[in-house]
Structure of ParA family protein:
Amino acid sequence: MQVYLVANPKGGAGKSTLATNLAGLLAWRGGVTGAAQVMLGDVDRQQSSRLWLARRPAVLPLIRSWDLKPDRAARPPAGTTHVVLDTPAAFHGDKLKECLKLATRVLVPVQPSMFDILATRSFFDELAELKAARGVQVALIGMRVNERSRAAAEFLRFVEGSGLPLVACLRDTQNYVQLAAHGMSLFDVAPTRVARDLEQWQAIAAWLGVHCLPPTLD
């Protein structure tokens, strides 16, 4: 079972946006190849991802949540092949370590502001040590990035010294907001509607080893 942990202790970094669209990508791929059964697990008190799942139309590729039974710990439903874990702000200590032990890959969404960078610097250091010690694949994902801005240039300079790879930068667009309101991801609508965003996700898909992409990216 592949476990993808989306984590950053800084609030408002874009964790739920990244997690829901990552789950959408994996579910879309599973619908095409029949090779994936996806679970989106929300360990955030706000339960943003669970609320997103509650809005998801039944006609779309299935994404399941935790298997919850009385007097039993939450667990992935039987047959799950891919788990995406969405984590809360200030997520640290034993809970973070427990999730990191389960993770196959870790994706860290970061916005290109010095406040976000400074707030997560120690977390980057911890992940870099984990990557070196356990060989876990860790990647940074730039969120709401305007590539022409000074903030983006400073962000890229910081990333170069972090020891962690920047896999992709996702632009600031209402596509994510509008789709989230209906429990949908970029991969649930006509590719031509979100072609620019799908192009940015191509690098994330390649890093994940997902080679089956929407037609506009072939």
